[in-house]
Design brief:
alpha+beta; four-stranded mixed sheet; 8 helices
Length: 214
Amino acid sequence: GRAREAGLHFGLPELFDAPTVAKLARRVAETGPPAEEPAAREPFALVPAEDRDRLPAGLEDAYPMAELQIGMVYEQQRDPDRNPYHNVESLPMAGRFDAAVFRRALALVVRRHPVLRTSLALTGYREPLQLVHADADLPLTVTDLRGQDAAAQRAALREAVRTAHATPFPLDSAPLMRMAVHVLADDAYQWTVTEHHAILDGWSVASTLAEIAD
Protein backbone atom coordinates (compact mmCIF):
# COMPACT_ATOMS: atom_id res chain seq x y z
CA GLY A 1 0.00 0.00 0.00
CA ARG A 2 2.79 2.45 0.85
CA ALA A 3 4.54 1.53 -2.41
CA ARG A 4 1.44 2.43 -4.42
CA GLU A 5 1.13 5.73 -2.57
CA ALA A 6 4.74 6.46 -3.53
CA GLY A 7 4.09 5.69 -7.20
CA LEU A 8 5.92 2.34 -7.16
CA HIS A 9 4.12 -0.46 -8.93
CA PHE A 10 4.70 -4.21 -8.73
CA GLY A 11 2.63 -7.34 -8.25
CA LEU A 12 2.81 -10.30 -5.90
CA PRO A 13 4.82 -12.38 -8.42
CA GLU A 14 7.56 -9.74 -8.38
CA LEU A 15 7.47 -9.58 -4.59
CA PHE A 16 7.92 -13.35 -4.25
CA ASP A 17 10.58 -13.53 -6.97
CA ALA A 18 12.54 -10.62 -5.47
CA PRO A 19 12.07 -10.79 -1.69
CA THR A 20 14.71 -8.20 -0.76
CA VAL A 21 14.49 -4.44 -1.13
CA ALA A 22 17.50 -4.33 -3.48
CA LYS A 23 16.15 -7.03 -5.80
CA LEU A 24 12.64 -5.63 -5.74
CA ALA A 25 13.89 -2.14 -6.60
CA ARG A 26 15.36 -3.49 -9.83
CA ARG A 27 12.11 -5.28 -10.68
CA VAL A 28 10.04 -2.16 -9.99
CA ALA A 29 12.18 -0.19 -12.40
CA GLU A 30 11.65 -2.87 -15.06
CA THR A 31 7.90 -3.23 -14.70
CA GLY A 32 7.06 0.48 -14.93
CA PRO A 33 3.64 1.99 -14.21
CA PRO A 34 0.51 -0.16 -14.41
CA ALA A 35 -1.99 0.02 -17.20
CA GLU A 36 -4.70 2.63 -16.89
CA GLU A 37 -7.63 1.71 -14.67
CA PRO A 38 -10.63 0.57 -16.71
CA ALA A 39 -13.48 3.02 -16.90
CA ALA A 40 -16.39 2.45 -14.52
CA ARG A 41 -18.96 0.19 -16.15
CA GLU A 42 -22.64 0.89 -16.46
CA PRO A 43 -25.14 -1.30 -14.56
CA PHE A 44 -25.95 -4.57 -16.38
CA ALA A 45 -23.01 -4.05 -18.75
CA LEU A 46 -21.70 -7.58 -18.04
CA VAL A 47 -25.03 -9.23 -18.94
CA PRO A 48 -25.72 -10.05 -22.61
CA ALA A 49 -28.59 -8.14 -24.18
CA GLU A 50 -30.74 -11.26 -24.59
CA ASP A 51 -30.42 -11.99 -20.86
CA ARG A 52 -31.11 -8.39 -19.85
CA ASP A 53 -34.56 -8.65 -21.39
CA ARG A 54 -35.37 -11.57 -19.06
CA LEU A 55 -34.17 -9.99 -15.81
CA PRO A 56 -36.84 -9.39 -13.17
CA ALA A 57 -37.98 -5.88 -12.30
CA GLY A 58 -36.57 -4.06 -9.31
CA LEU A 59 -32.87 -4.71 -9.90
CA GLU A 60 -30.04 -2.20 -9.61
CA ASP A 61 -27.50 -4.38 -11.39
CA ALA A 62 -26.63 -7.92 -12.43
CA TYR A 63 -23.36 -9.64 -13.28
CA PRO A 64 -21.97 -13.18 -13.60
CA MET A 65 -21.24 -15.29 -10.55
CA ALA A 66 -17.57 -16.01 -9.95
CA GLU A 67 -16.43 -19.59 -10.42
CA LEU A 68 -15.62 -19.76 -6.71
CA GLN A 69 -19.20 -18.80 -5.84
CA ILE A 70 -20.58 -21.44 -8.21
CA GLY A 71 -18.31 -24.03 -6.60
CA MET A 72 -19.54 -23.12 -3.12
CA VAL A 73 -23.18 -23.42 -4.14
CA TYR A 74 -22.51 -26.75 -5.87
CA GLU A 75 -20.70 -28.21 -2.87
CA GLN A 76 -23.45 -27.08 -0.53
CA GLN A 77 -26.25 -28.54 -2.62
CA ARG A 78 -24.52 -31.89 -3.11
CA ASP A 79 -23.99 -32.30 0.66
CA PRO A 80 -27.21 -31.18 2.41
CA ASP A 81 -26.37 -33.09 5.60
CA ARG A 82 -23.14 -31.21 6.21
CA ASN A 83 -24.38 -28.03 4.51
CA PRO A 84 -20.93 -26.56 3.79
CA TYR A 85 -20.54 -22.84 3.09
CA HIS A 86 -23.67 -22.15 5.14
CA ASN A 87 -22.06 -20.33 8.05
CA VAL A 88 -23.42 -19.59 11.51
CA GLU A 89 -21.62 -17.32 13.97
CA SER A 90 -22.96 -16.66 17.47
CA LEU A 91 -21.48 -13.77 19.44
CA PRO A 92 -21.98 -12.80 23.11
CA MET A 93 -22.59 -9.05 23.33
CA ALA A 94 -22.39 -6.77 26.34
CA GLY A 95 -24.84 -3.89 26.68
CA ARG A 96 -28.53 -3.16 26.46
CA PHE A 97 -30.28 -4.41 23.35
CA ASP A 98 -32.50 -1.87 21.58
CA ALA A 99 -34.47 -3.63 18.83
CA ALA A 100 -35.56 -0.45 17.05
CA VAL A 101 -32.03 0.95 16.88
CA PHE A 102 -30.65 -2.43 15.82
CA ARG A 103 -33.14 -2.74 12.96
CA ARG A 104 -32.26 0.77 11.76
CA ALA A 105 -28.57 -0.18 11.76
CA LEU A 106 -29.31 -3.29 9.71
CA ALA A 107 -31.29 -1.26 7.18
CA LEU A 108 -28.46 1.26 6.79
CA VAL A 109 -25.85 -1.43 6.20
CA VAL A 110 -28.02 -3.31 3.72
CA ARG A 111 -28.60 -0.07 1.83
CA ARG A 112 -24.86 0.63 1.73
CA HIS A 113 -23.62 -2.78 0.56
CA PRO A 114 -25.05 -4.25 -2.69
CA VAL A 115 -23.90 -7.77 -1.76
CA LEU A 116 -26.44 -7.75 1.07
CA ARG A 117 -29.16 -7.14 -1.53
CA THR A 118 -27.92 -9.87 -3.88
CA SER A 119 -29.59 -13.14 -4.84
CA LEU A 120 -28.18 -15.86 -7.08
CA ALA A 121 -29.75 -17.11 -10.32
CA LEU A 122 -28.17 -20.43 -11.25
CA THR A 123 -30.39 -21.09 -14.27
CA GLY A 124 -32.49 -19.16 -16.75
CA TYR A 125 -29.62 -17.18 -18.26
CA ARG A 126 -26.59 -17.94 -20.40
CA GLU A 127 -24.50 -18.20 -17.23
CA PRO A 128 -25.25 -18.04 -13.48
CA LEU A 129 -25.88 -14.45 -12.38
CA GLN A 130 -25.77 -12.33 -9.27
CA LEU A 131 -28.89 -10.15 -9.11
CA VAL A 132 -28.58 -6.95 -7.09
CA HIS A 133 -31.99 -5.84 -5.84
CA ALA A 134 -32.87 -2.23 -5.14
CA ASP A 135 -34.25 -3.19 -1.71
CA ALA A 136 -33.95 -6.08 0.70
CA ASP A 137 -35.00 -6.67 4.30
CA LEU A 138 -32.49 -8.52 6.45
CA PRO A 139 -34.51 -10.96 8.63
CA LEU A 140 -34.09 -10.47 12.37
CA THR A 141 -35.80 -12.51 15.09
CA VAL A 142 -35.61 -11.39 18.72
CA THR A 143 -36.20 -13.76 21.64
CA ASP A 144 -36.32 -12.61 25.26
CA LEU A 145 -34.71 -15.20 27.57
CA ARG A 146 -34.35 -12.96 30.62
CA GLY A 147 -36.83 -15.01 32.66
CA GLN A 148 -34.87 -18.26 32.25
CA ASP A 149 -31.92 -19.64 34.20
CA ALA A 150 -28.45 -20.02 32.69
CA ALA A 151 -28.91 -23.69 31.76
CA ALA A 152 -32.18 -23.02 29.93
CA GLN A 153 -30.59 -20.07 28.11
CA ARG A 154 -27.66 -22.23 26.97
CA ALA A 155 -30.03 -24.90 25.72
CA ALA A 156 -32.10 -22.34 23.80
CA LEU A 157 -28.96 -20.91 22.19
CA ARG A 158 -27.70 -24.36 21.16
CA GLU A 159 -31.04 -25.14 19.56
CA ALA A 160 -31.11 -21.77 17.76
CA VAL A 161 -27.66 -22.38 16.28
CA ARG A 162 -28.58 -25.95 15.28
CA THR A 163 -31.75 -24.75 13.57
CA ALA A 164 -29.94 -21.90 11.82
CA HIS A 165 -27.36 -24.28 10.39
CA ALA A 166 -29.99 -26.78 9.28
CA THR A 167 -32.05 -24.18 7.40
CA PRO A 168 -30.48 -23.25 4.04
CA PHE A 169 -31.26 -20.08 2.16
CA PRO A 170 -33.42 -19.95 -0.97
CA LEU A 171 -30.74 -18.67 -3.33
CA ASP A 172 -33.24 -16.73 -5.45
CA SER A 173 -34.16 -14.41 -2.55
CA ALA A 174 -32.08 -11.61 -1.08
CA PRO A 175 -30.42 -11.25 1.31
CA LEU A 176 -28.46 -14.46 1.78
CA MET A 177 -28.04 -13.49 5.41
CA ARG A 178 -30.25 -13.49 8.50
CA MET A 179 -29.86 -12.74 12.18
CA ALA A 180 -31.27 -13.67 15.55
CA VAL A 181 -30.84 -11.99 18.91
CA HIS A 182 -31.47 -13.69 22.26
CA VAL A 183 -31.73 -11.19 25.10
CA LEU A 184 -30.09 -12.81 28.14
CA ALA A 185 -30.16 -9.94 30.64
CA ASP A 186 -30.75 -6.21 30.76
CA ASP A 187 -27.07 -5.72 29.86
CA ALA A 188 -26.25 -8.82 27.73
CA TYR A 189 -27.49 -10.57 24.60
CA GLN A 190 -26.39 -13.21 22.11
CA TRP A 191 -26.16 -12.22 18.45
CA THR A 192 -26.41 -15.12 15.96
CA VAL A 193 -25.57 -14.44 12.32
CA THR A 194 -26.25 -16.87 9.47
CA GLU A 195 -24.82 -16.16 6.02
CA HIS A 196 -23.99 -17.90 2.77
CA HIS A 197 -20.25 -17.95 2.17
CA ALA A 198 -20.88 -17.13 -1.51
CA ILE A 199 -21.58 -13.50 -0.56
CA LEU A 200 -19.25 -12.93 2.42
CA ASP A 201 -15.87 -14.19 3.56
CA GLY A 202 -14.34 -14.07 7.02
CA TRP A 203 -12.95 -10.57 6.66
CA SER A 204 -16.12 -9.05 5.22
CA VAL A 205 -18.31 -10.76 7.83
CA ALA A 206 -16.18 -9.23 10.57
CA SER A 207 -16.20 -5.76 8.99
CA THR A 208 -19.97 -5.90 8.37
CA LEU A 209 -20.75 -6.91 11.95
CA ALA A 210 -18.43 -4.22 13.27
CA GLU A 211 -20.20 -1.66 11.09
CA ILE A 212 -23.60 -2.72 12.44
CA ALA A 213 -22.37 -2.63 16.02
CA ASP A 214 -20.84 0.83 15.56
